[in-house]
Amino acid sequence: xxITARPMMKSDARxxxxxxxxxxxxPFIRDVPCKVNxxxxxxxxxxxxxxxxxxxxxxxxxxxxxxxLDVVDEMTVAxxxxxxxxxxxxxxxxxxxxxxxxxxxxxxxxxxxxxxxxTLRGSVDTWAQRGDAERAVQRLTGVRQVVNRLTxxxxxxxxxAIRLQIERALERxxxxxxxxxxxxxKDGVVTLSGAVQSWAxxxxxxxxxxxxxxxxxxxxxxxVDPYS
Length: 228
Fold this sequence. Notes:
The chain is α/β, with parallel strands linked by helices. It contains seven helices and ten strands. The chain has helices at about 10-25, 50-65, 85-100, 125-140, 160-175, 175-180, 200-210; strands spanning about 35-40, 40-50, 70-75, 110-115, 115-125, 145-150, 180-185, 190-195, 215-220, 225. Strand 1 and strand 2 form a beta hairpin. Helix 1 (about 10-25) crosses helix 2.
């Protein structure tokens, strides 16, 4: 019988130090003024980011650190004078961004821009595309916030078939994670539950589920437990 030892828990001070090092390691965000507080593995990030892309990158950096259980994003976006764009310019940039992305059905997506907030409307083919469109717009200069109201236009697929698609995809990528994830499907909405050791694993599982045909929504209830 083989006994696997549980990894030692990291202290809050160590987690905070690792997050700051992760931010410093990324040249895109190393100069972003932010503060990080950690309490029992829960991270709170405050500060002002010069762009929405920088804000998202700081939060992603915190999620990447082993030992992080949750991240509370209390950052704000304060564009520099050089990065300010009119709503008209932002709308044009969004249109160009969508048109140049070969994986997005740009002709079915429209946007409304108000004071730097971009609202996406329309339909896409998969849940994964919905997230891809949002992330693409988040990276545009001048964008302060993205409101995603895209819907998934998909043919009806038997729930059992959707579940089987996802389970097989998880098994192809990571057998260990596949055994720890439960998949339930109802009316096109996939509910994911179970536990993984990192946010990267959690995001990867959700991405796999989002690519399945017939999925119109995801209820991600996966728990991140670095010490499981």
